[in-house]
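Hypothesis: this fold can be encoded by more than one sequence.
Test: take the structure tokens below, design a sequence, compare later.
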């Protein structure tokens, strides 16, 4: 973006003017945890609640019709942005729920009301994940293994926290499901999706992509990625909290048994049995997150308007600056690849002798917001031999000046705690 373009873009985000503790605007480097929202997304919630709110799919009054139309238009808009089909997009409350839905449905016994096109998992089968996974794409598969007797296997990470195609022989004829992240929320490492999909296809495994850290940072096309399932999260994509999605090849939707059951997902109910909707509705039990869907759709339109390629270029350029600066700080340990070709602009780091919590607090006192902790990826931190880290993540609204502030604040943190040899 040119300086003027970036200034205009930043104007769309009211939160960027909120003063921090020292009175300066906050340099927000925590978009990997949750993104900030442009005014149009905030407005879309107000407009929906002020002009269209009603329960959906109960079309006997005008507001019900309006809300239903908005809800289904939103499904179309979000699916379109992600290169998917609305018939394959199931709303969930977040990406974690989408992964639970999938892990539960794929590990259900065959005795369901639906055609089970997926042979039940059992002893001898394997579910393969990776060392890089967020707990959301790890624990649900552990539970699926417990339920079925299948074995959990994983692809190890390289020393710098990447997946290496040399290690893909772990994916073998016993592998029934391969679930992996698109971009690590810790190391920023980009997964070799095409290699993984090719390997999974060669052994007939179902592929599941966790795209929480990729969809807001550049072009994303579910169809081109050629996976069977993906999950996405609105709140990481400038949209509201409280909504995520499971994206599926549409023909797979009706092969999955339902996860949550109750109202709205049934076509008929007797005292001792029920039949379920086909398509996404069969998974959307209870009252739907309508305003959230509307807000997410607005966020997708906004991202499209700004331009995914331009967002990627901007974040890549800032990533280069930040990476170069981090690598120059004596003693700083970067947890992840050291070239931008192998990573997104998500940087977890450790300062030896200084607890990440103290790093976060010192940066906060300088109005620089980063995340500290294990970032819901304890096994990956174990791989690096640390309990936790600080993480700075770049988004479309960050500036070079903010990168300088971040780097200066890290150096100042080291100085405050007595240099690098504490
Ligand atoms: N996977 C990854 C890689 C993530 O970064 C996150 C969010 N931290 C999740 C899954 C979970 O997403 P949600 O908050 O929508 O449940």
């Amino acid at each position: 973006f040119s300086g003027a373009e970036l200034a205009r873009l930043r104007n769309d985000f009211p939160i960027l003017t909120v003063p921090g503790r020292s009175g300066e605007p906050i340099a927000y480097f925590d978009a990997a945890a949750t993104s900030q929202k442009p005014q149009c997304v905030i407005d879309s919630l107000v407009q929906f609640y002020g002009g269209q709110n009603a329960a959906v799919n109960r079309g006997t009054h005008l507001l019900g019709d309006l809300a239903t139309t908005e809800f289904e238009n939103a499904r179309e808009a979000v699916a379109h942005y992600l290169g998917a089909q609305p018939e394959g997009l199931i709303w969930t409350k977040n990406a974690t729920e989408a992964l639970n839905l999938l892990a539960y449905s794929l590990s259900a016994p065959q005795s369901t009301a639906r055609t089970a096109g997926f042979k039940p998992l059992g002893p001898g089968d394997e579910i393969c994940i990776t060392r890089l996974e967020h707990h959301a794409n790890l624990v649900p598969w552990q539970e699926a293994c417990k339920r079925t007797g299948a074995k959990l296997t994983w692809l190890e990470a390289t020393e710098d926290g990447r997946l290496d195609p040399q290690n893909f022989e772990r994916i073998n004829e016993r592998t029934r499901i391969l679930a992996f992240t698109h971009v690590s929320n810790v190391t920023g490492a980009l997964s070799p999706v095409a290699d993984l999909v090719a390997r999974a296809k060669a052994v007939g495994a179902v592929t599941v992509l966790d795209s929480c850290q990729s969809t807001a940072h550049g072009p994303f096309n579910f169809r081109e990625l050629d996976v069977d399932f993906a999950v996405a999260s609105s709140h990481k994509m400038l949209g509201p909290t409280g909504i995520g999605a499971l994206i599926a090849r549409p023909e797979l939707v009706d092969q999955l048994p339902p996860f949550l059951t109750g109202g709205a997902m049934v076509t008929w109910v007797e005292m001792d049995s029920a039949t379920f909707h086909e398509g996404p509705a069969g998974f959307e039990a209870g009252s739907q997150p309508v305003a959230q869907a509307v807000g997410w759709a607005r966020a997708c339109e906004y991202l499209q308007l700004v331009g995914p390629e331009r967002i990627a270029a901007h974040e890549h350029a800032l990533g280069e600056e930040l990476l170069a600066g981090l690598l120059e700080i004596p003693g700083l340990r970067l947890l992840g690849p050291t070239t931008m070709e192998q990573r997104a602009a998500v940087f977890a780091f450790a300062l030896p002798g200084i607890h990440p919590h103290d790093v976060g607090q010192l940066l906060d006192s300088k109005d620089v917001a980063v995340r500290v902790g294990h970032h819901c990826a304890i096994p990956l931190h174990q791989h690096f031999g640390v309990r936790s880290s600080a993480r700075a993540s770049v988004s479309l609204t960050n500036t070079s000046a903010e990168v300088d502030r971040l780097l200066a604040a890290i150096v100042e943190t080291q100085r405050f705690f007595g240099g690098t040899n504490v």
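The chain has a mean pLDDT of 95. The pocket of 4'-deoxy-4'-aminopyridoxal-5'-phosphate is lined by residues 94-96, 134, 136-137, 181, 185, 210, 212-213, 233, 244, 376 (CB under 6 Å).
Hypothesis status: open.
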